[in-house]
Amino acid sequence: PDGGWRAWANVLGGFLVLFASLGLVSAFGVFQVYFVQHRYTSHTESQISWIGSCQLCLFFLLALVAGPLFDKGRFRYLIGAGSVLWTLSVFLMPEAQTYGQCMFVQGILGGLGVGLLFLSVQSHWFEKRRSLAVGIVASGSSVGGICFPIMLNKLIANPDVGFATAVRAVGAVVAVSLLIANLIMSPHPARKVVQKPPLPPLKQIFTLTYTSYVIGAFILNWGMWFPNFYVQLYFLRQHASEQATYYALAIFNAGSFVGRVLPGIAADLFFGPLNMQVICCLCSGITIYLMVIMTSEAMLILWALLCGFFTGGFVSLVSPVIVSISDNNLAEIGLRQGIAFVLIAGAAVGGNPVCGRLIANRNGDFLDSIMFAGSAVVLGALVALVGRMAFARQRGTWRV
User: Fold this and answer.
1) Rounded to two decimals, what is the model's pTM?
2) Which option is the CATH number for 5-395: 1.20.1250.20, 1.10.3720.10, 1.10.8.50, 1.20.140.10?
3) What is the mean pLDDT of the chain?
4) Is 277 in contact with 385 (CB distance < 8 Å)?
5) pLDDT at residue 194 above 60?
6) 326, 391 in Cβ contact below 8 A?
7) Burial class of residue 5 in the structure, from the number of CB atoms within 10 Å of its CB (0-12 exposed, 13-18 middle, 19+ buried)
8) Which of 143, 185, 220, 332 has its CB surrounded by the most CB atoms within 10 Å?
9) Torsion over CA of 381, 277, 6 and 183, rounded to 10 degrees?
C-alpha cells in the first residue's frame, strides 16, 4: 500500500464520488431557501429540513449494508447501484411537485443512492498515509459543496433557466463524475473477498474510549450539520447582500475543503486523529456560538470560513479515529464503525428539524437554534474528550 497509480486512481475516484454525492447533499441549503420561499411555501423550515436530514440519515445507515457487501467483493454492484439511484434522484427532483414527492425522490431515493456510494476503498490502499488519503477523498464533498451552490444559485436566479433546468444541469455533472469514478476505481487485489471474522464480545467493543467517543459523536451530530443546512438562510435573515447570500454555502464549504485536508495531515504528522478531531469539534461548537455576534457581512463571511474548516475536520477524521482506537482489528473496525454510523444517522435526522422548529418558534430568529446546536457540539466534544484521555493512558502517550 501507500503508493502506485492504482492507489491514487482510487483516491481520485473516491474524490469524484463524494464530489457528486455528498457534495450535492452539502448544497441542500440552496434547496432549503428555494423550497421555503418559492416551492413549498406552506411548509416550515423544520418540515423542509426533514428532506435533507433524511438524505443524511440514509447516507450513514446504508454503511451497514455497503460495508459487509464490500467485504464480500460486491464493490462493483455497490458503486453501480448507488450511481444509478443518485443520478436518477437528481434528474427526478424537478418533477417532484408536492412535498411528499420531494421527500421520496430527494430524501429517500437520493439517500439510498448516496448511502450505497459511501465507500472507503481508498483506505484499503493506504496504511501510513491513510488519514491523508481519506482527507483528500472527503474533500471531494467540499469541492462539490463549493461548486454546486454557486451553480444552482446562479442558474435558478436566471429567468431564462430556472429551477428545473438548473437541477438537470447539475444532474449532468453528477452523471459524468460518477461514470469516471466507476471506470477508475477498484478494490485492492488482496482484499477482493474478506472472510468475515467472528464478532468480538461486546465487552471488548465497548471500551471506555470507544463508548465515550460514540456517545460524544451522537450528541454533537445534533448540532454539527446546522450551519450547513441554514447558513444561506442565516445570511438572508441578517440582510447580507444578494451576492454574499448566494455564495454563503460555497464559502462555508470552501472552509470545509481546507478542513478536510489540513487536519488529516496534522493528525498523521503531529497530533494523532483523535486529538485532532476533538480539537476541531470544540472549535466548531464555539464557532457556532459566535454566530450571534456576526452581524456585518465581512464577519459573516469570516465566520462561514472558520465554521466550515472545523466541521470539515470532524467529518474527515471519523474513520481514521475508529481505525486507530481499534488497533487495525478488522472485526472491531467493522462493528464499531457500524454502531457509530447508526448513532450519527439518528442524530443527523433529528438535529436539523429541531433547529428549524426553534427558528419557527421565534418567528425566524436564530438565537435558540444557535444555542441548541452550539451546546450539542461542545457537549459532544467534551464527552469524546473523556475517551481521548482514557485512550492516551492506555497507549502511554499523548499522541492518539
Assistant:
1) 0.85
2) 1.20.1250.20
3) 87
4) no
5) no
6) no
7) exposed
8) 220
9) 40
Whole-number Å distance between alpha carbons of 288 and 381: 13
Q: Are 260 and 316 in contact (CB under 8 A)?
A: yes
Q: d(Cα 203, Cα 196) in Å, to the nearest integer? A: 19
pLDDT at 3: 64
pLDDT at position 147 is 92
Euclidean distance between CA atoms 43 and 27, whole angstroms:
20
Backbone angles phi, psi at 27, to 5 degrees: -95, 15
- Which one is predicted more confidently, 140 or 281? 281
Query: What local confidence, expressed as pLDDT, does residue 130 receive?
Result: 67
Domain ranges of the chain: 5-395
Three-state DSSP at 126 gives coil
User: Rounded distance, CA 357 to CA 373, Å?
Assistant: 13
pLDDT band at 221 (very low <50, low <70, confident <90, very high): very high
- What cell numbers appear for 98 in the block? 408536492
Q: What percent of the chain has pLDDT over 90?
A: 44
Q: Cell 430556472 identifies what position?
A: 162
Query: In which residue are the cell numbers 457540539 written?
Result: 377
Distances (CA, A) of 96 to 163, 174, 300, 349: 12, 19, 33, 21
Report CA dihedral (58, 63, 64, 68) to the nearest 10 degrees: 150
The cell for 301 is 463571511
User: Which pLDDT value is given to residue 124?
Assistant: 62
φ, ψ for residue 224, nearest 5 deg:
-65, -35
One-letter identity of residue 64: L
Cα–Cα distance between 149 and 153 in angstroms, integer? 6
